[in-house]
Amino acid sequence: MSERYAAVERALREAAPHELLNVVRASLTEHFAANSVNLLIADYAMTLLQPIDTLPYTAAPLSVHTSEPGRAFGAQQPLLRSAGTPPVVTAHLPISVRGDRLGVLSLALPEEHCSRATLGELEQLADVLGREIVIAERDTDLYLQARRTQRLTLAAEMQWQLLPSRACSRAEYALGGQLEPAYAIHGDNFDWSSSADHLTLTVTNGMGEGIEAALLTHLAVNALRNARRAGLDLRDQAHLADQAVYGQYEGAVHLPTLLLRFNLNSGLTEVIDAGSPRLWRLREGSLERIEPEAQLPLGMFEDTIYHVEQFEVRPGDRLLIVSDGVYDVASPTGEKYQERALAHAVNSARLLPASHVPRAVLDELAGHREAAEIGDDATIVCLDWFGR
Fold first, then answer.
1. 379: closest CA among 233, 206, 218?
2. Rounded to whole angstroms, how far apart are CA atoms 273 and 293?
3. CA–CA separation, 52 and 20 (whole Å)
4. pLDDT digits 0-9 by tens, 364-373
5. What are the two backbone dihedrals, phi and then psi, of residue 8, each rounded to the nearest 5 degrees?
6. 247 — phi, psi (to 5°)?
7. What pTM, to 2 d.p., does this model score?
8. How does DSSP assign 15-33, residue by residue?
């Protein structure tokens, strides 16, 4: 890489957490002759991009679907436009970290300074900026504030902070998930973690409303993480979380949860269906429901024994996990979403990457529901399996 690339990268790494925007503006202006530099952050619903001016205040948001930065964000490809005399190139560069889409870096620079090599360096600097934003969020609220177009409920604040991210990708798989209503979610959640040879994925269908639902989910998810990090197998992870929830609530509340553990070498998958999140598989254009043995939700009874079942995923498979806030939603005529509309939505999104699918299916769900109010949390997780 060039000296100017190294200079901008060093400046970003040395910047104070709240100064990333000012530093990237000054550095790109000095080293790349940029006329303007703007940072846009995707909101919690993944429908708007928030242009950051003076944090935590922002300019008017831009639509992910209709704006030029939104097109770059959706395609995850740079979008260039040349205009004016002398010509100036406006470049919209997507910002993502390991498949998790964060936003867009937009800048304008004279056309004579916009060579292919320059564009390549700017794309990589957008990746550096993304990683620095993720690190900076540990020490400042500014970028989390910029993500919201309205105030989060306290329960939603707790749930979003509990998530690992909204997308993740590596050679063997790609994952994407979304929670709705984004600014008022109660208890639904998802969690994942990968090692050298395994991927563990859990989806919880929260019980209750508000803070009580969020507290219940926090207890269960952290119990599952504690067991997983202690090296316990899937059955014991479910058992420990079950006992943690029962010990706190004595069966008064419980938590439907789907637990999955994928072998990255073989595709052999362990599953425990402890409740209502449902699992569909799209294979060679055919959508089918995978129905493991229905077992008790976490925390319903003391000393519940869980049994692990197995199935296989193959390269090219797409798995979709949805909560009852998706499959039980009824249209104005009374037809449940899972009966036909879900299959239509999954097939309509078959060419989209996993990170885009949850939002696309939820948009179809909104059309199915029409004017009806959201009656329950809606959670969707999509997994594309590539294998080794």
1. 206
2. 7
3. 11
4. 877 655 544 5
5. -70, -45
6. -60, -30
7. 0.91
8. S-GGGHHHHHHHHHHHHH-
